[in-house]
Amino acid sequence: MEWILMIAGLAVALVAGVFLGFSDFIMRGLAQAPANQGAAGMVGLNRTVYRSVFMVLLIGLAPVSGFLGLLALWQFEGAARALTLAGVVAYLIGVFAVTGMGNVPMNTRLEAMDGQTRETASYWPRYAQRWTRLNHARTVSSALAALCWLTAAQIV
């Protein structure tokens, strides 16, 4: 069972790395561009992410999290159970729910503004600030899930 936790922990660590890149420098770089250019860059990134390995990991880790939660309840005890379940909660709420209820709707709204220069210029600064804050939460949550699952793998 430790190999499942190890693979899931490494996969979510990769997700955390992508989120960290956005929080650390990608969003800051886009925010420095003129509003319509920064927004256009973000729309382009959002369009390409749907056909990426990152998206496979992001979505694929949701059912994996559910499986790990059941595994923890049925097979693990003590610290291994607690760490595994903490990682599940961190991923499902702090990554998956934040993405689906926060970042994705903002991305959809930004893309719908395509060609509306004044509206985009007005929305972009608020978008960049709020989207980045939500991304910070996803970064911390995915790193926490990785830490929990990798630690649990060592004590199972």
From TrEMBL:
The chain crosses the membrane at residues 6-27, 48-76, 82-104. Keywords: Membrane, Transmembrane, Transmembrane helix. The keyword Membrane applies. It comes from the Bacteria. Pfam families: Anthrone_oxy. InterPro entries: Anthrone_oxy (IPR013901). The keyword Transmembrane helix applies. This is Uncharacterized membrane protein. It comes from Lutimaribacter saemankumensis.
